[in-house]
Write a structure and sequence with these properties.
Number of domains: 3
Helix content: 25-40%
Strand order of the largest sheet: 10-9-13-12-11-14-15
Order of helices and strands: HEEEEEEEHEHHHHEEEHEHEHEEH
Strand content: 15-25%
CATH topology of the largest domain: Glutaredoxin
Largest sheet: 7 strands, mixed
Number of helices: 10
Distance between the termini: 101 Å
Length: 343
């Protein structure tokens, strides 16, 4: 009888343990080596367009409790970006060194399996696209198809092999992402082939006509025939564009007196002309400052397939394309290209 009572007690304890409900929150904590003063960890949920900010202490440690309405795939940003999957009942620890980000990123605790998969997938993405994604999209169709299939097979096989370790909603989401990627990636490839054909080196550049000139009057691209032209397509609201402004000033100074014109072509809305003029004045921007006629819808912007800025374009004295996506002023390779021209 005593043995029966002991066994029953054990079974009751086990049963109680099994019935412990999952936590209705997730714990996200960790340590950032070489933290950046006052910078917070930003978690962006693209699906719902929501952002969660996690405070990071001066010593690089952080700890937050997140109540999730549903399992969520975030883009986590702290100097660099990485994928982060968070679901209720997780207790996830993140470690990373900002000076060697990708190689130091480490996940431990409940939730590590999903996030380690995301880290693996990010590495495979880097292999697929390489240093310049255009090299991948410029492949011949057979080579493109082969490389894409190898990527999809590798991700799919790994996902299947780890299915038992992963959250079911995470697996479903990743499977759907692979299907969507295959479709969208082919569309992107076909679009790049159109770009290559329309904007190949040696092709006559698309034109713009009668754009507002900050210095007065209006200007057209044909006005600059006889000179090399380096065009910076930018806007006052674009952070990365503003980052390039001081670098562009240095390039302009270095090639002052040479046969090259530097045009900064703003795609701000015409109603924001005053804001455009103020920024040019405040930042003491040099070169030729123009304002496009219909912001992103301007024909010149459309003809150059510009979907994101800044974009830099290099044209020769005859108005022919040298590079439809030239290096940025902050990149040393721009000077290498310019030094190779007869300017």
């Amino acid at each position: 009888m005593k043995k029966i009572l002991i066994i029953a007690s054990i079974l009751m304890v086990v049963a109680c343990q099994k019935q412990t409900p999952p936590k209705d929150y997730a714990i996200v904590q960790g340590t950032i080596t070489n933290p950046i003063d006052s910078l917070q960890l930003r978690l962006y949920d693209a699906k719902n367009d929501k952002t969660v900010m996690v405070a990071v202490a001066k010593d690089g440690t952080f700890l937050d409790t997140l109540r999730m309405e549903e399992p969520t795939l975030f883009t986590a940003v702290y100097k660099n970006a990485f994928g982060l999957f968070v679901a209720n009942d997780m207790d996830l620890k993140i470690e990373v060194d900002t000076e060697k980000f990708s190689e130091s990123l480490k996940f431990t605790g409940k939730g590590e399996a999903e996030n380690n998969f995301l880290k693996f997938k990010a590495a495979e993405d880097n292999k697929l696209y390489g240093e310049d994604y255009k090299d991948y999209y410029n492949l011949e169709q057979d080579a493109f198809d082969k490389k894409t299939k190898s990527y999809l097979d590798g991700i799919g096989t790994t996902l299947k092999s780890k299915k038992s370790e992963l959250d079911s909603s995470f697996v479903s989401n990743q499977e759907l992402n692979l299907v969507a990627f295959e479709k969208d990636n082919l569309i992107a490839y076909q679009e790049q082939q159109k770009v290559n054909k329309a904007l190949a080196p040696g092709n006559q550049s698309p034109e713009f006509t009668d754009y507002m000139n900050y210095a007065g009057g209006k200007s057209s691209l044909k006005d600059f025939r006889g000179s090399y032209v380096y065009i910076d397509v930018w806007a006052t609201w674009c952070g990365p564009c503003k980052y390039e402004i001081p670098f562009l000033a240095k390039v302009e100074e270095q090639y002052h007196g040479k046969n090259i014109k530097f045009i900064s072509l703003s795609i701000d809305n015409l109603k924001d002309e005053a804001k455009w003029r103020t920024m040019i004045k405040d930042k003491k921007m040099g070169g030729i400052q123009l304002l496009a006629d219909k912001d992103y819808e301007s024909q010149f912007v459309q003809d150059y397939f510009i979907y994101g800025i800044p974009r830099f374009i290099l044209i020769d004295p005859a108005g022919k394309i040298i590079n439809y996506d030239a290096p940025r002023p902050s990149e040393e390779k721009l000077k290498t290209i310019l030094n190779g021209l007869a300017i």
